[in-house]
Write a structure and sequence with these properties.
Helices cover 42% and strands 21% of the residues. By secondary structure, it is of the alpha/beta class. It has a single domain, classed as Rossmann fold. Strands 3-2-1-4-5-7-6 form a seven-stranded mixed sheet, sandwiched between helices. α3 runs parallel beside α4. The radius of gyration is 17 Å and the shape is globular. The termini are far apart. It binds 3,4-dihydroxybenzoic acid and magnesium ion. Magnesium ion (MG) binds next to loops.
């Protein structure tokens, strides 16, 4: 079989059909997001399931998400923490937050999710930990700032997931001036070198093209 974006999508569709079958609340969240004109840059279904499983595997009860968008990944995380858990999610765009609020409430997990509207750089300093899992999926220029907050707001053993670390391979360019790529390169270096993290990163292909995520444990 040829490895092409088309076959990546077909395999992703196959895996999604197996592991993330149709789900009323998640499907409705994507529809609401699309109707509101939000970009379709939420995590792929299989990646949402991965976040869900990581949260459950780590026994997370308090989750921090940076970058809510329309609440798709937030629903996966909120389901993982269970009725006694909480998800705090930070969103810079009030319109996005409103869409997310509607979808989280409709999904029946609204009570366990707090959406903080504001820029990460303003909102994160007001938070207190410890959080058990931090998912960073916001403006890539601020990735190192967000990792710094994740380290501050976590505890030894906290799981940190950083989305979009490959960006069609752009992260190996040494001559790039793309601020999102530079922010991601800096974040990867920080995860590798900063003694507060023990980390790795994986490439992914599929529905969302060629990208990847980093996974870290707070030391
Ligand atoms: C972009 C952001 C994301 O979080 C993502 O998953 C894909 C793309 C972006 O801003 O380009
Ligand atoms: Mg992302």
């Amino acid at each position: 079989m040829q490895s092409t974006p088309q076959t990546w999508r077909e395999v992703d569709a196959h895996l999604s059909a197996l592991f993330t079958p149709a789900d009323e609340a998640l499907d409705a969240a994507l529809s609401a997001q699309q109707e509101a004109g939000l970009p379709a840059i939420e995590v792929a279904p299989v990646a949402g399931k991965l976040l869900h499983l990581l949260a459950r595997m780590s026994g997370a009860r308090r989750v921090l998400e940076i970058g809510t968008l329309g609440g798709y990944s937030t629903i996966w995380l909120a389901r993982a923490v269970g009725p006694g858990g909480t998800v705090t999610t930070v969103e810079a765009e009030a319109g996005n937050a409103a869409v997310a609020r509607g979808s989280l409430d409709a999904a029946g997990v609204g009570e366990r999710v707090e959406i903080l509207v504001g820029r990460g750089e303003d909102v994160l300093p007001t938070l207190e930990g410890p959080f058990d899992l931090v998912f960073i999926d916001a403006d890539k220029e601020s990735n190192t700032l967000y990792l710094d907050h994740a380290a501050r707001l976590g505890r030894p053993g906290t799981v940190v997931v950083l989305d979009n670390v490959v960006r069609d391979g752009e992260i190996i360019r040494t001559d790039t001036h793309d601020a999102m790529v530079v922010g991601t390169q800096n974040a990867l270096r920080m995860l590798a070198e900063d003694p507060r993290f023990d980390a790795t990163a994986l490439q992914t292909v599929g529905l969302k093209g060629w990208d990847g995520f980093a996974l870290a444990l707070l030391v």
